[in-house]
C-alpha cells in the first residue's frame, strides 16, 4: 500500500502571530515556522502503518515557497520515504490546493491520502473534502482510529452522539483528528538520513492549476482585548448587571 501525506508550513503553534502595520495580513518575517500540527499526526499515522507492514511507501507533498523544503525534511525524518514540493510564491486557497493534490494523486496513484483535518493558520477544514470530491474517492474525516484491512480501511470518527465507524473502499481520503496519535520527535540520526532522501520539485503551472486567489483580504485586525471581570456579592446584583449590559431581559 502506498500512502500520500500532504503537509503545510505554518507559523509555529507556540508563536503569537503579529499583524502587519498596514493590516493586509499576518507578518511572517523572522517568525518560526513548522509543520501544521494536524499534518504531523497524519505523517505519524502513515509512518506507523509502514512500520506495521501495512504500507510499502510514504510520500509527503507540500505546496509553497522553497522554504517548505524544511517541512518536507521534517516529514522525511519522521519516516516518509520521499518528498514532493510544488513551488508557488502565491499561497493557494483550499480549492486550488485540492486541485494540485488531485493532480499529484493521479500521478502517484496512492491507496490512501492522509492529511490533517485543517491547518491552524486559516482553519478552513476544506481541502480533504474537496480532494475527495475531485477524485470521486471515499472519505473518512476527523479520524480518531484507522484500521486497514484486506478489503479497505475502517475509520473511527467522533460525532455528537459518540463514535462512528466507517468502512472505506480504497483508494480513500482520510483527515486526522487530535486523538488519532501522538506524533514522534525526529531523532538526530533520522534527521541526518532525511537530508539524503529525494525531494522532487514541480510548479503549479506544470500541473496546469491556476492558483490565483478568488478572495481578497480587505483588512486583518487583532481581536479586542478582554475586559477584566467583576465580582458581585449576590445573584440579584448579577442579574442587575446583566440587564445593564443588555444580555438579560
UniProtKB/TrEMBL annotation:
Domain Electron transfer flavoprotein alpha/beta-subunit N-terminal: 23-211
CDD domains per UniProt: ETF_beta
GO biological process: carboxylic acid catabolic process
Pfam families: ETF (PF01012)
GO molecular function list: electron transfer activity
Entry function: The electron transfer flavoprotein serves as a specific electron acceptor for other dehydrogenases. It transfers the electrons to the main respiratory chain via ETF-ubiquinone oxidoreductase (ETF dehydrogenase).
Family: Belongs to the ETF beta-subunit/FixA family.
Alphabetical list of PANTHER family matching this protein: ELECTRON TRANSFER FLAVOPROTEIN BETA-SUBUNIT, ELECTRON TRANSFER FLAVOPROTEIN SUBUNIT BETA
Stated name of the protein: Electron transfer flavoprotein subunit beta
Species the sequence originates in: Pacificimonas flava
